[in-house]
Amino acid sequence: MPKIMLQGTGSTVGKSILVTALCRIFKQDGYSVCPYKSQNMALNSYITHDGKEMGRAQVLQAYAAGLEPEVYMNPILLKPSSDKKCQIVFNGKVYGNSTAMEYHNMKLQFAEKLKEEFEKIEKQFDIIVIEGAGSPAEINLRERDIVNMGLAEMVDAPVLLVGDIDKGGVFASLAGTLLLLSDDEKNRVKGTIINKFRGDIDILKPGINMLEDIIHKPCIGTVPYFTLDLEDEDGATTFNKEKTNDIDIAIIKLPHISNFTDFDALKLEEDVSVRYITSKEEFGNPDLLIIPGTKNTIEDLLKLRKTGLEEMIKNYSKQGMVMGICGGYQMLGNILKDPYGVESNCEETKGMGLLDVDTVFEKEKVTTRVKAKGHECDIYGYEIHMGICTYGENAKPMFSIYDCNGEAQERLDGAVSKEENVLGTYIHGIFDGVEFREKLINKLRAKKGIELKKSKDYENIREKNLDMLADIVRRSLDMDKIYEIMGLKK
Questions:
Q1: What pTM was estimated for this model as a whole?
Q2: Whether 276 and 214 share a structural domain
Q3: H or E segment and range at residue 214
Q4: How many domains is the chain partitioned into structurally?
Q5: Selection from 217, 223, 178 nearest residue 204 by Cα
Q6: Residue 189's closest CA among 207, 216, 226?
Q7: Which residues are part of the catalytic machinery?
């Protein structure tokens, strides 16, 4: 069955976006195509239509392929909760928590299941585009590898090796990676891709020719450096720190920040600046302050308390607008209780007290796609959280949820302060819909005496950018050679 796998000389070399591009190219060429990454380590996650959790990178790849995201595209998701521990999500549901060594020792438990599921996918599509993780040259992990060469061997996939020239040393990284592979693994690599190139290609060509002579692998193409309105994978994101427009939206960059793709749609507003704060000196006087989601709410709250940012947030809330999403919403409440040790060893932690809600962390994670009604508009998005909030007499709900995973349900979400300037919600992706985003940003514009504007449709812009991505990569790569490698005629 035709398939192609992109592995990299390291993390953030551009594997995810190139897989996205190939998915759109193959779709444009009339093939049914599916993205696949056996194991993804990320804090940006997404909830599928049936309430399962997967990595955001494969969500964008699914959209590029014209598909609804499904967990079989990313069966293992690792969500770091500290430097040494992570939560394992397998086939969309929490499997457990482990240290790096514990997970390394249990990888082979997943191997047979991965192979069985992959064989099912092969029967459904014309082409599968597979993404590796990190680098196949991490030789200390080779013995139990289920995401790079171990996976390529398991599913018999040809490999293209991607290097990032923007970092420097691309020839050495490509040649060095191949040097550390076994002979069988080297034979599986059918070519290289140089990514993120800036400058005159004629100056680069002699180096490409010399590299081909050294490694005996063809260069399939050189992809230029580009900027499009498409989300990056976690590690590849650059967090802007500067105010660049009239409307200043500041986001607290928490140590364990998650789902910061929530804010990509805000960047489409032409007079909006989205910047990230890590210290008191960077705080400024934003028009809107957002406390985002986090994989470790209590630890991150204590960090804000220690650095003095919590006090600044509380002072700012007396005259500014504050919004918390998921973990950020929990921080804004009165008390956070963790009786089962889900997030920390602290059974009870005091919150900021800006919303009259209390949070209790439960053993089961809530993972739902939702539709809800607000005071002024309908919204949609998804929930990924362990905590449950209860309301005090001084908090009113922000939304009324009427649909969970496609089934009718009535329950409340979020909270609004008495003064209506402090908001909290569990719903991720809340800015993706035009109506809520437009109303919120226009409130900020009106407060500053700026002309009100219509917001852009995020989904339509994403589709246009996916086509632009495909055009750039199609022009840059030898697509005839890629089809030949897969055993297909274009």
A1: 0.92
A2: no
A3: helix 201-215
A4: 2
A5: 223
A6: 216
A7: 326, 428
